[in-house]
Amino acid sequence: MFISSVLFAQKEWLNLDRFAFEPGLSVNKTIPTPASFLGYELGEQSTYYSSIENYIKELSITSDRVKLVTYGKTYENRSLYLLVFSSPENLSNLESIRINHLKLMNSNDSQAKEIIERDPIFLSLSYNIHGNETSTSEAALQVAYRLAAATDEATNKLLQNSVIQLYVCINPDGRERYIQWYNSVKRKQLATSKNDLEHYEPAPNGRSNHYWFDVNRDWSWGIHPETRELTKEYQKWMPQIHVDHHEQGYNSNYFTMPGTTPRNKILPPSYEAWSDTFGRANIDAFNKNDISYFTREAFDFFYPGYGSSYPSIMGAIAMLTEQGGIAGGRAIETEDGTILTLRQRIWDHYTTSVQALFTGVKHKKELLKYSYDSWQPSKSLSAIKTYFLSPTDMYTPDVMKILQHHGVKFEQSKEAFTVNTAFDYISNAPQKKIFPKGTIILSCNQAQHLLINSVMDKSLEIEDSVMYDMAIWALPLAYNLNAYYTKEILSIPTEPISVTSTVHKIASNAYAYIMDWKQRNAPAALAHLWKLGYRVRSASKPFQIENNSFSPGSLIILAGANIDNKVNLESDLQKISKEHNVSIYSVLTGRSTEGLDLGSSKNRPVQQPKVALMVDAPFNMQTAGQIWFLFDEEVGLPVDRIRTSVLLQSAMPKFGERYGYADLNDYDVLILPGGGNNLKYIFEKDAFSQLQDWVNRGGILIALENAVEFFTQDRSKFTQVKWSEIPNDTSLMAKTVSFDKREDYFGKKRIPGSALMSQIDISNPLAFGMEPTLHTLKQDLSSFLPANGLQTVGTYHTDVSKLLTGGYAPKEALKHLSGKSFAGIMPMGSGKVVFLLDNTQFRMFWRGPSRMIQNAVMLLKQF
Ligand SMILES: [Zn+2]
C-alpha cells in the first residue's frame, strides 16, 4: 500500500484524471496500451524511437485492423514507417481498394460518381517532422492504439468507411537526437523552471534531419529521404485530408485551422471552408475541456514545401496543428503561470487527431468529390496552359526529376513550333517565339496541374501581407532556366522524352581528355578524378579544339601529366563519365584551333584543396548544413567541420571543452557560413591577425551571407571592400505609424525571399560554368560596393524596373540595391577573400548560384 501511494504521488503531476484518453471507450483488452507496453504513462518520460518501433510492430501483430509499411530509411539508417488502419474486411482487400481509389484521379464524372458512392475515404495524419516536437509521435502511439483497440460502434463505422494513414514519426534521426540528449540531462525532480538545462537543447538540435535541414520545407522538392520517400508513399494513397502535427514555443496556446494570408489562390475556393470545419471540430473538443487555443492570426500555407501545403496541391485538404511545447521537457511553467506538461501536449494532439478522423469520415462523399474536382485540369483556376523548358539548360533535368517524382509527365516537341504569346521569366510582356525541335513540354492538362502551377508559376498572387516564409520558389527562377509559358491552348506534335546518354566512348591513347565545366556534375567528376590521384588542369579561357568548343574552367587531363597512371586512365574516365553523367572528349593533339593550347601554363593545375567549414554558434547551422550536404553527398569532396572553439590555436576565446585545436595552416580553404556581427568576438586581436596572415600566405577565405559585412572596410577593415549601409526609413510615415500598424508597415519594408535579376562576370573563375544572367535569391537589403582591387562577379541589375523577377520587394529596397554587388573576390597577398552575400544553395533547391561556392572551394586557389 505504501509503495503504490508513493508511486501515485510521483505521478500526480501528470494529472491523469484530466488528461485521460477517452476513459469510457470500450476496448479490446488483448491489444496492449502504450502505457502497459512501455512501462510508463505517456508523458511521464520521453519515448525513444526504438520503443516507438517496438510498439507499432506489436500493434501490427496483435491487431487485424492495421498494416505496417516500411517506406524508407533515413541517413542514419533508421526505418520510416506508415501504419494503415481500416476494418479487417477492408484490410484483407486493401490492394484493390487502393487501386480503385487512385482511379478517381483520372476518371470521368460518371466513373467518379460510382467511386465516391462506393469507396472509403482516405485520411492521413503525420507526426514529428521536427524531431524535437516530441509530443507529436507520443500522441501518434495513443491514436494508433485507439484505432486498433476501440470496439464501439462509431469506431467500427469509421474503419469500415475509411483507410487511415498514420505517419508515426517522419524525422526519427532528429527525434532520437533530441530524446537521447533530453533523457541524458533529465532531472529526478521535475524541472518546471524555464531556466533549467532540460529546456536548452544544444546545437545541432533535433528539429532538423541529419544534414541540419528543416525537412518541413522540403515536401515539394524531395531533396532528403524523410520527404522524398514520404511523398512517394503518399502518392500510393492520395488521401482527402492530411493533418501535419507540430509544436511551437511553450508559451503559445494550441493553433488550429484556419490559418492566415497569403493564400495559394489557385486552390479550390472551398478549401478555406473545409479547413474551418475541421478547426471547429477541434475547438468544440477544446471548449468542453478548457484547452486554450487560437486560430487565423498566424501560419500561412502558401509555400508548397510544408506538410500543411503539399497535400493541398495534391488534391487534399492539408492542415496544420501546433501545440505549445518545444523545449518544454516533461513540464514547464509558462508565462501565464500554469504548468504545461508533456502529458497535456500529448492529450491535446491525441484529441485533435481523433476529431480529424471522425470529421473526415462524416463528410466522406463531399471530400472525395473535393479531391476529384481538384484533380480536374478543366477546373484549374490558373490561366497557364503549358510550360516550355530547354533540354540544354544545366538544371533542366533537376527540375524534371522533382516534378516526375510527383507523377508529372513531360513530352518533347517533334518539330519546331511557334507560340504567339509566350512569356519568359524576366519580362512580363508576351512575345512571339519559335521553339526548336526537342523543346520539353510541360502541359497543365494533367491531374497534378495544381502542383505544376504552384511550383512553376512565378506570379502566384501574393496578397498584401507579411510573409511567414520566402515569397518566390518558381523552379525556373530557382534553377536559372531559360523557360517560358503560355496561356494559349496549343496543339504541338510531341513524343515521349528520349533519354540521350551523354556518355561518350573514351578513346584509348588520346593526347588529352577534356570535360566541359558547364556540365551539371563536372565538380563531382573533378572530385572523383582527385580521389583517383589524377593530375588535372582547369582552362582559364574558352577554347576550341578538333571542332569542339569548351567553356572556361573546363577540365583538361593531359596523358603526359598522368603517365604514371596511363594504363588506368581510359577505364577510369569511362567509369567517371557514366557515374556522373558527364561528357568527356578525347583529343589527339594539344594544339587548339582557337584559344590557349592545352598545355599552356595559364590553364591552371588544380589540386584537391583541404577545406574547413565552420559550424557551431555563431555560425548559421542551416547554411553550414547545406555546404556540408553539397560537398559530402553531391560533390564527394571531404570537408572538415570545425567547431568554433576548436579554431585558431591560442587566439580563440577560451570556452567550451576541447581536445585540441585546429591549425589553420593545415587548410587551403576556410568557409564561414554567416555569423554576422558576432564574428568580431571570434576574430578579435590575435585571431584576426592570424587570419590575415593565413590569407596573405595563400588561403582562400570564403565569407557567406552575413559574414561578408564583417570583412569590409567599414567594419573590421580586413579588406578595402565598402559596405553599402542600409538607409533608415526617416519618413514622417515611419515615425507616426500607429502601434497596431507597426508590424505590417515594417514587415512590408523587408524582402522576404525574392528573386533578383543579376549580371554575372562569367570570365571570372568564381563564375566559371555559369550563365551571364542569374536570378539570385535575396532575403534582406544587404549589398557591397566596388572598391580598388575588388573583382566584382555578381551585380544586381542596374535597371530598377528589371530587378525583381519574382516575389515581393518594396520599391525603395530595389532602388537601394540596383547596381550594387553581392558576389566578388578581393585578392590579398597570395590569397583571396571571397564574398558571397546571397545564399548559393538555399534549401538545396535554389541552385542557380551554387556553382560559385563550388568554384570558390575547388578552383580558386590556383587562379
Ligand atoms: Zn514544427
Q: SSE layout and pairings?
A:
Elements: H1 2-11, H2 34-38, H3 49-62, E1 66-73, E2 79-85, H4 88-92, H5 94-103, H6 109-118, E3 121-127, H7 135-149, H8 153-160, E4 162-167, H9 172-185, H10 225-234, E5 241-249, E6 254-255, H11 270-289, E7 293-294, H12 310-313, E8 317-326, E9 331-333, E10 339-341, H13 342-362, H14 364-374, E11 386-389, H15 396-405, E12 411-413, E13 417-424, E14 431-435, E15 440-443, H16 449-456, H17 475-478, E16 484-486, E17 494-495, E18 512-515, H18 522-531, E19 536-538, E20 543-545, E21 548-550, E22 555-558, H19 566-580, E23 585-587, E24 604-606, E25 611-615, H20 621-635, E26 640-643, E27 669-673, H21 679-682, H22 686-696, E28 700-704, E29 722-723, H23 732-736, H24 742-747, E30 754-760, E31 773-778, E32 784-785, E33 791-796, H25 800-803, E34 804-806, H26 811-817, E35 821-828, E36 831-836, H27 851-858
Helix pairs in contact: 3-7, 6-14, 7-13, 11-13, 18-19
The structure holds zinc ion.
The site of zinc ion has 4 residues, from loops.
